[in-house]
Sequence to fold (186 residues):
Amino acid sequence: MVKLLLIFLISFNLNASTLVSITNSEGQQMSKDFDTDQEADAYISTHSVNGSWGRPQEWRSIECAGFLQTRLDIMSQTEWECPQEFTATKSDTTASTAAKVALEVIVNDMGFGKSLYAKIRLMNAGKSKAVRDAMRVSLSPIRDALLDGDICSARTDIAAITPDANITAQNLTDVLALIDAYKTCT
Fold:
């Protein structure tokens, strides 16, 4: 279940590749993410034409502030070319979105690793201090990998452990099952 959710989040988040940012003449700002550059262009085009963010660049029969140029219409009346009342910019956000998703995966893996290490420690809770200390030393590379979120390296190291009186085959099976339910390691 967690694997499917994570795959969904990754595929969903990587779709947002173009950010459109709008600033109108009063300084109000808004932005929206789009899956494709074409969708962003269509959005800008639609809202530019219908005046959602302000008037587009156009010729007007009434003078406007900051006009670009003047001309005479067919009846020798002055017209002013007025600038658009908003700016629309597009930014490619694919790389930053991918970086955010990668960071989310690492943070999730670190959280899982911490939780799993706590469960491993709990398995050893009833053992003597000497056994717990020995286990802490022998499991330190696994602990480090789990806390770093390197779940697959930890899985490899755990699978290589030979069961004994302190680490039973059932303990190993249980821990490996938890890892396999969380993440597919190749």
About this structure: The beta strands are 18-24, 29-34, 58-60, 69-72, 78-82, 86-92. The first strand starts at residue 18 and ends at 24. The first helix runs from residue 2 to 15. Residues 17-92 form one domain.
